[in-house]
Amino acid sequence: MTTTATTPRDATTGGPMVLVEHVARTYGSGRTAVHALRDVSLEVQPGELVALVGRSGSGKTTLLNAIGGLDRPDEGRVVVAGHEVSALDERGLVRLRRDVVSFVFQTFGLVPVLTAAENVGVPLRMRRTPVPEREARVALLLDLVGLGDHARQRPGQMSGGQQQRVAIARALATSPRLLVADEPTGQLDSETGRQVMALLRAVVEAEGMTAIVSTHDPVMVALADRTIRLADGRLLDG
């Protein structure tokens, strides 16, 4: 059963886009248990670009996975755009990831045999978007990420930075309300990483969406509206 928030704390009614309340997540048990998240509570407002910062193992990826519905917390709740993610069944989670949340990872995840345009269009094909509408949206997004002239190239013909731009365009294809990016510049050199970070800032504003980006990059921190810091699964500030 699809579960939605029962309170008015909904992005459509002026509330937060993301609400995390007392979330905990533990992997394993006993003496080998890893407490990835410990009583984490935070809010992200519509239109915010938030940088999620912390050392490796601090809980950043676990928190992003809980927000995006890729993992389920042991305690607490997560609400995204009015949907209580932590209580959704598998069908509800599929709809959430199809219609509300999109992801960008440091491993680009592009289909090698498809062109840049075809990769960007995959989510729209899954939605059965009419061909003229799909082609127009793909062209718009490739222009937005600066790859309008590379539409027919395949991933193997592109640099790492270009592939990440295609991945960002693909994540934007269905006009998500929330973009979740986990170390999106982790495989890029510093200059390309800076370009991708600036692009993320630009597309968030152009598309009018909310974004949470985990990063070690000080450039992303500087571009963000706010920084949330994690250490040993606990929230330090935000």
From TrEMBL:
InterPro entries: AAA+_ATPase (IPR003593), ABC_transporter-like_ATP-bd (IPR003439), ABC_transporter-like_CS (IPR017871), ABC_transpr_LolD-like (IPR015854), MacB-like_ATP-bd (IPR017911), P-loop_NTPase (IPR027417). The keyword ATP-binding applies. GO terms for molecular function: ATP binding. It holds the Pfam family ABC_tran. Keywords: ATP-binding, Nucleotide-binding, Transport. Residues 18-236 form the ABC transporter domain. It comes from the Bacteria. This is ABC transport system ATP-binding protein. The lineage of its organism: Bacteria, Bacillati, Actinomycetota, Actinomycetes, Micrococcales.
